[in-house]
Design goal:
Helices cover 28% and strands 24% of the residues. It starts with a helix and ends in an 8-residue tail after the last strand.
């Protein structure tokens, strides 16, 4: 009986009503008042606690905040890092191949032998640090011109659906003249020599982008054009170059004037080379002069 009375008294106290009053301390004016019971207060704080626990569990389990908790990292992070490392390795490998391609192209234009590997001095990673290089107005103009040309930088490889045989191209004759020296790879003569009149215009044999336009001691004023399908045409011993590096040209566009420049020149003529997939080919097999 005493225990039952004690429990009844406890339940009765839970439902006893109280008033919570907020008053102005200076005027004792009543501002806000609440009628409360111990049971209502218990229900309110119990519900609030459950809500906070559920909200915390949700934030940890279903939001990125869990990644900031030690030992609770995202399981996909390691896979993402592995994929990024593989992509970085692939980009580095492709960059080395393009560097080798450009280096061999420069060697060919300068009359040197192609190499299978890049020289050690070109493998220095610091060579790619271009932050300290100054920018000129001409450079900005060329960049804007290149970016506006969809044809620039179009590389089509053999496994591409757009791959075509070199025989399917119509090559524009670079100049009308007489062949005085034929294609002879064994004798290190990778093109043909065409003799024409003085001041004769040299024309692009196909659509493409100028990737080299400069002077060398051995071959004078040279210009090289990158065409689609890994085709490259080279024009040497010119007297004047009319196109700059980065210019896009159409087949038949005038790109230079025939000349007699360079130590290897034996008179006014054009030395014309045609390269396909990195190998020299005989221009007379594809061009009607």
């Amino acid at each position: 009986m005493p225990k039952r009375k004690k429990n009844s008294r406890f339940l009765h106290k839970l439902h006893d009503k109280y008033r919570l009053v907020l008053m102005n301390d200076a005027t004792l004016e009543e501002k806000i008042s609440f009628r409360l019971t111990r049971f209502n207060v218990f229900i309110f704080f119990g519900t609030l606690s459950i809500f906070l626990v559920v909200a915390t569990i949700y934030l940890i389990a279903f939001t990125p905040l869990k990644e900031y908790i030690p030992g609770y990292a995202d399981f996909n992070t390691r896979q993402v890092l592995r994929d990024l490392m593989m992509r970085a390795d692939s980009l580095e490998r492709d960059l080395r191949q393009k560097d080798l391609y450009i280096h061999n192209f420069r060697n060919i234009v300068e009359g040197k032998e192609p190499v299978e590997f890049l020289p050690p001095e070109l493998l220095d990673p610091d060579q790619y640090n271009i932050e300290s290089l100054p920018r000129s107005v001409e450079d900005s103009i060329i960049r804007a011109e290149i970016e506006s040309m969809a044809e620039y930088g179009t590389w089509i490889y053999e496994d591409s659906p757009a791959f075509q045989s070199i025989n399917q191209y119509f090559f524009f004759p670079p100049v009308k003249g007489i062949v005085t020296n034929h294609f002879d790879p064994a004798g290190q003569h990778f093109g043909i020599d065409l003799v024409a009149d003085t001041n004769e215009a040299i024309k692009a044999t196909l659509d493409g982008t100028v990737i080299f336009s400069a002077w060398t001691i051995e071959t004078g004023f040279n210009i090289g054009i990158q065409h689609a399908n890994n085709l490259v045409s080279i024009y040497k011993h010119n007297s004047v170059l009319l196109k700059e590096k980065g210019s896009y040209v159409k087949a038949g566009d005038v790109i230079a004037i025939i000349g007699d420049t360079g130590l290897y020149s034996t008179g006014t003529h054009l030395h014309f080379e045609l390269w396909f997939n990195g190998n020299p080919v005989n221009p007379l097999d594809y061009i009607i002069l």
